Amino acid sequence: MNKTVNQKAWFLVLPVLVLVAFSAVIPLMTVVNYSVQDTFGNNVFFWNGIRWFEEMLADERMWNALGRQLVFSSIILAIEVPLGILVALSMPKRGFWASFCLVVMSLPLLIPWNVVGTIWQIFGRIDIGLLGYTLDAIGIDYNYTQDFYAAWITVVVMDVWHWTSLVALLAYAGLQSIPDAYYQAAKIDQASRWAVFRYIELPKMAGVLMIAILLRFMDSFMIYTEPFVVTGGGPGNATTFLSIDLVKMALGQFDLGPAAAFSIMYFLVILLISWVFYTVMTNLDKRDAKG
Amino acid sequence: MSWMAWTWPTAAFFAVIALLLVTFSILAIRFPETPRRGILRIETTRGDRLFITLLGSAFINLIWLGLGLGPQYWALVVCLVYAAAVFRFV
């Protein structure tokens, strides 16, 4: 039978193309245009060439924010991924409690970012917050507005509280797709719990875990609202992550040129990392399909 | 269009990228290809190699600028060599 080739289906992609053009491509082009010019407002621009890029690349402030950002993303990935897997492994497989756990796990995901920030900001206060008051009462010196470590711990714990469920739910979906026969075979071979995890569960979860890691990396790399609400980037610059720094520069100081150059480099880093993740993911899929 | 603050160099930059995309689309339609595996051990098509070239070129330019290695057009020469290598070996 001859297959008919019909390329007209491509027209169905048009609405998405238009949407992406207006929401991403045109703004990005504008940012590129800003990055080579200087402005004092009134839509009047002066050509500045690649000097903003030069300035930003030599700017310690940007490198420090990037360093903090990478440390933050690494910490939350190192906590959320193993913790999410652990939670998924200990969730019941079927019945009422399985549904109950799923609903409870999804609750933090439904809360908007700024509300999460506000919850933790109040939670951690020494005068009225449950966490802050309790820690203070048992003699632990905790003040996230003044202490570097307290601020970092608060921001990290807040992110873990907000997003571990996502990793857990994805890992749980991966676990649910493993047929019982695998476990029965493992039982016959008298495999240890660790061997079951290492050779059955982990390989079967690899695909969804990659998606979880990608999503968590991207989100944490672009995090803005929660630390902004809780610490405002402080104390000093302790929790000033890339996007907080970027907003300060673009909107606070109205340095559109440097901020645009900064955004483009930020975008390129995200693009590179997403591409690496995407490539690894699709290659894993292909390997699975073959094997 | 004035709010987009266009300049000739940036317009030319985007025109070149648009032209590359159109050229590669036409090439893909005229001369369909099967993905191949190169030194990165991943399957790539011409479009993938173009993406790797463009993204890599952006980083080459930034590294060149950041390390102050000289006039920027030399970075473009390095990019061309890089592009040739990507299309040959990746």
From TrEMBL, chain A:
<dbReference type="GO" id="GO:0005886">
    <property type="term" value="C:plasma membrane"/>
</dbReference>
<feature type="transmembrane region" description="Helical">
    <location>
        <begin position="259"/>
        <end position="280"/>
    </location>
</feature>
<feature type="transmembrane region" description="Helical">
    <location>
        <begin position="196"/>
        <end position="218"/>
    </location>
</feature>
<feature type="transmembrane region" description="Helical">
    <location>
        <begin position="96"/>
        <end position="123"/>
    </location>
</feature>
<keyword id="KW-0812">Transmembrane</keyword>
<protein>
    <submittedName>
        <fullName>ABC transporter permease</fullName>
    </submittedName>
</protein>
<dbReference type="GO" id="GO:0055085">
    <property type="term" value="P:transmembrane transport"/>
</dbReference>
<comment type="similarity">
    <text>Belongs to the binding-protein-dependent transport system permease family.</text>
</comment>
<dbReference type="InterPro" id="IPR000515">
    <property type="entry name" value="MetI-like"/>
</dbReference>
<dbReference type="InterPro" id="IPR052730">
    <property type="entry name" value="Sugar_ABC_transporter"/>
</dbReference>
<feature type="transmembrane region" description="Helical">
    <location>
        <begin position="70"/>
        <end position="89"/>
    </location>
</feature>
<dbReference type="InterPro" id="IPR035906">
    <property type="entry name" value="MetI-like_sf"/>
</dbReference>
<feature type="transmembrane region" description="Helical">
    <location>
        <begin position="12"/>
        <end position="36"/>
    </location>
</feature>
<keyword id="KW-0472">Membrane</keyword>
<dbReference type="Pfam" id="PF00528">
    <property type="entry name" value="BPD_transp_1"/>
</dbReference>
<keyword id="KW-1133">Transmembrane helix</keyword>
<keyword id="KW-0813">Transport</keyword>
<feature type="domain" description="ABC transmembrane type-1">
    <location>
        <begin position="66"/>
        <end position="277"/>
    </location>
</feature>
<feature type="transmembrane region" description="Helical">
    <location>
        <begin position="149"/>
        <end position="175"/>
    </location>
</feature>
UniProtKB/TrEMBL annotation, chain B:
<feature type="transmembrane region" description="Helical">
    <location>
        <begin position="73"/>
        <end position="89"/>
    </location>
</feature>
<keyword id="KW-0812">Transmembrane</keyword>
<feature type="transmembrane region" description="Helical">
    <location>
        <begin position="50"/>
        <end position="67"/>
    </location>
</feature>
<feature type="transmembrane region" description="Helical">
    <location>
        <begin position="6"/>
        <end position="29"/>
    </location>
</feature>
<keyword id="KW-1133">Transmembrane helix</keyword>
<protein>
    <submittedName>
        <fullName>Membrane protein</fullName>
    </submittedName>
</protein>
<keyword id="KW-0472">Membrane</keyword>
<dbReference type="Pfam" id="PF09928">
    <property type="entry name" value="DUF2160"/>
</dbReference>
<dbReference type="InterPro" id="IPR018678">
    <property type="entry name" value="DUF2160_TM"/>
</dbReference>
